[in-house]
Amino acid sequence: MGSTPLDRTERFHYLPPMPRAGFVTVAGRPNAGKSTLLNRIVGQKLSITSPKPQSTRERVIGIRTTEDAQLVLLDTPGLLDPRSALQRAMRASALRALDDADVILYLADATQGVPPPFTEAARIPSSPAAPMLTVLNKIDALSDGQRQDVQRAMPDAVPISALTGRGVPALVRMVAERLPESPWLYPEDEIGTQSLRFFTSELLRETALEQLDQEVPYGVACAVEEFREERSPVYIRAVLYVERESQKGIVIGHGGARIREIGRAARQKVEALVGAPVYLDLRVKVLANWRKNPAALRRLGYTLPEG
Ligand code: GDP
Ligand code: MG
User: Fold this and answer.
1) Residue whose CA lies nearest to ligand 1 atom number 9
2) Whose CA is nearest to atom 7 of ligand 1?
């Protein structure tokens, strides 16, 4: 009468696979193709750099959620650039991105021959703890012979072309397999409107920091308060928060010149991101000492440790 119990293999067959999620740190020399690869992996045109990075959240440059894995991509600006006199804070942040990584992608331009070992390129004493995939990019630009040569020299490297997309789906699967079992780190719809909001606020903050240089160091936060994707042009209302009244004057500038310029530059980046004309309504407000105010930080989307 009773149903036949499933045998072991069948039982396992019916268990849904655990999702995997984690941080994927991307490192490569200038021109290796990092931005091109990111745009491929994330599947929309974006590549954000944080010139004054502070926390993991602010180093997030892209998120890709597949059926069973979520890749949260972190940047390491300048880490592998021998010419860049990196500010100590930036190098420290890039090194933290290696420590935070669940998987590291060491991206190299295959047209430049066999890349140096990662420890040498990054000038670090020992290999990072996370599993690393060496990725040979631009294989589309190699002759068959050249391709065979580099692959023979580096049999474990993953050959791709970020430009044509060749090898990229396989790379995403290899990364996913190496991520820890974990629930999603960001909401699944972070690749929808939610993420456009998220990336828009990151772009605004980045633009403000670029244009303010050191005048309001770390003092600017951004909140996107309204995002109407269905409108044409797309309507975005956003606020730049500063900590003090004096900083507000600096951000606004003489006769509003500075805020207009920030808005203009940011709008162009956001238009590239959403792929449509954008109307950006940008204001400046004082939120006293927001960096020390947990409620303000949460409101601005910062994740704080519990307790
Ligand atoms: P990044 O400095 O590491 O971010 O490199 P970019 O993504 O900006 O790419 C640098 C240059 O290499 C650009 O001109 C890209 O179009 C080109 N590039 C990137 N990936 C590929 C690829 O797979 N094949 C070829 N032929 N060119 C590529
Ligand atoms: Mg780039």
Assistant:
1) 33
2) 33
- Closest listed residue to residue 208, CA positions, set 155, 284, 121: 284
Nearest CA to ligand 1 atom 25: 138
Determine phi and psi for 204, rounding to 5 degrees.
-65, -45
**Helix, strand, coil: what percent of the chain each, to 5?**
40, 20, 40
Select from 47, 163, 171 the residue to mutate for testing ligand 1; criterion: most ligand atoms less than 8 Å from CB.
163
Q: Say which residue the tokens 């069973």 belong to.
A: 68
Ligand 1 pocket, residue 128 CB under 6 Å = no
If one compares 105 and 219, the residue with the highest pLDDT of the two is: 105
The 10s digit of each residue's pLDDT in 123-167 is 999 999 999 999 999 999 999 999 999 999 999 999 999 999 999
CA atoms of 303 and 305, how far apart (whole Å) = 7
- Could you report the per-residue pLDDT of 180-236, keeping only the tens digit for each? 998 888 765 544 344 677 778 878 888 888 888 777 756 688 888 888 877 889 899
